[in-house]
Known about the structure:
The protein is mostly helical. The chain contains ten helices and no strands.
Amino acid sequence: MLESLINPKRIEKGPWKMFFIGLLYASLSLLLVYLFFNKDTVLSQYSGMIVVTFCVMFSLPFMYYIIKQEEKEDEQVDGLLGVWKVHNDAIFAFMWLFLGFIIAFAFWFIILQDTSLFNAQIETYCMINSPGSIESCVAQYDFAQNVVGTGSATKGVRFLSIIENNVYVMIFTLIFSLIFGAGAIFVLAWNASVIAAAISIFAKYKITQIPLGVARYMIHGFPEIAAYFITALAGGIFGVGIIRNGVKNKKFLRVVQNVVILLFVAVAILILAAAIEVYFTPILFG
């Protein structure tokens, strides 16, 4: 139904339209889980993952269409500038989609006042920021409690931990996109929900503080997620390239070269994003 009402081809005329698509899909995902799954004794324990699953289901047509189109264009270019010129519209479209996910997730999470909706996301947040006291960290972010800060690891430890986590996510993004080009949207939707949970925590569960929370996490979040989108694009292009051209075709060799460039850029951006998160963002927000 939705894939028929919202045609992916229209996005070619304006990547920014993906922001509103992200708002719609994330809102529907969270509300569906809240209304139909969150009261179930068993399923409520997995609400965080079910929210992401719905978001993925809604977004698959867009991911598939964009990756398929990008592979066709990728066969005609080479070099870093050529690759960027061909793929920047797709990357911007993904970024707008991601921002829509984050805003909608954070908004409805605070409005509904139900921590179980993002139970897995909050646990992940605590695992990164308070690895030595995950249970107490999770407990204090219940809506019934006052939101207070937790003890954090040293900057050096946090930097290495973030790099490790980000590379892990990047590898999974690449694997998912290789197996099924559009499948990487699962990893990306998951990260959007984790960042939304972090924004809600930073905003102390107040709607008026969401813009400040977005600023706090998007300074490093935008380059970080851009690296994941570039990785997803690279994996999807590689997979489609094999199917279209075979491994001996000259066009496929060009595709491989461009995929390597994309992955190199993605790794460099991830390292930069981690440095910003650990050493620069705290200067601005404490």
